[in-house]
Amino acid sequence: METEISRTTRVGKIKYTNAWPVFHYFHPEQLQYSVEMVTEVPALLNRRMLEGGLEVSAMSSFAYAQGSDHFMLLPDLSVSADGPVKSILLFSREPLEKAVNGTIALTNTSATSVNLLKILVEKYLQGKPEYFTCEPDLTEMMQHADAGLLIGDHAIKASWENEGYYVTDLGQLWKNWTGFSMTFAVWAVRREAAASAPEAISEIVQAFQSSKERSRSNLTPLINQAVREIGGSEHYWHGYFSNLCYDFGMRQQQGLELYFNYAHELGLLEHEIKLQIWSDNTLTRVKE
Ligand SMILES: C=C(O[C@@H]1C=C(C(=O)O)C=C[C@H]1O)C(=O)O
């Protein structure tokens, strides 16, 4: 008979620096339960989570909402920003007010940010652009569009190489308009995995939490790795990691609920979303 201990939990990891603090000290080989890692851009992790090809993943908060009947949120984990995010950037040839009536190229790696842009354009800026989706290559995008949306390390690198484009930070724009924080990524578990393998999920959640805390207490190893692998300066990465928030408290939840409400109003989400957070019942069960 297959026991829970021998079953493998497939865990998705976002292939961008923004999620590193939660994964940096997450070492599957040190866990009691078996874990297989899949590292991909958010759009691919979203698809695999929706199709049941992963049990646990960091994913776009928008995709969590699309599949919320199948998912629960893991507690106190997110990639959020209360103001500028520095890596969700709209590059445009003309100032923003003009760009939002032109053609906008959208990265095919995102779900949250492309819908955030649509909300901001439609409700805040009253623009009427044409959109198309493509690979995250700014040079290529700008051959066919007036503006291009990039996320993650693609946005960071493009901001370093920027040759005169206007740059709009969507975290900052959301904050200017709503006064709220914005949550771009969440960590979720599929409901059937939460029901059938609670001990494994509990161990995974604790490992994510302790990675987050260890990263927060000393950013230097992450900064050094980012300089080595992506480029840029220690100063840049210190600013980048310390600016992002990895918690999912009341403030982040309120901002995300507001985003889901707007997405629903615009028909981007089919139904209203109630955040459902997984809680660890294994500790009480042991005592019974
Ligand atoms: C902060 C970021 O958030 C990311 C944006 C996502 C999206 O737009 O769907 C998904 C996951 C996050 O890692 C970033 O890409 O820089």
UniProtKB/TrEMBL annotation:
Source taxonomy: Bacteria, Bacillati, Bacillota, Bacilli, Bacillales
Role summary: Catalyzes the dehydration of chorismate into 3-[(1-carboxyvinyl)oxy]benzoate, a step in the biosynthesis of menaquinone (MK, vitamin K2).
UniProt-recorded name of the protein: Chorismate dehydratase
Organism: Paenibacillus terreus
Family that this chain belongs to: Belongs to the MqnA/MqnD family. MqnA subfamily.
Organism domain of life: Bacteria
Pathway: Quinol/quinone metabolism; menaquinone biosynthesis
Residues spanning the signal sequence: none
SUPFAM superfamilies in UniProt: Periplasmic binding protein-like II (SSF53850)
CDD domains: PBP2_Sco4506
InterPro entries xref list: Menaquinone_biosynth, MqnA
This protein's UniProt keywords: Lyase, Menaquinone biosynthesis
TM region(s), chain numbering: none
Reaction catalysis annotation: chorismate = 3-[(1-carboxyvinyl)-oxy]benzoate + H2O
Enzyme Commission number(s): 4.2.1.151
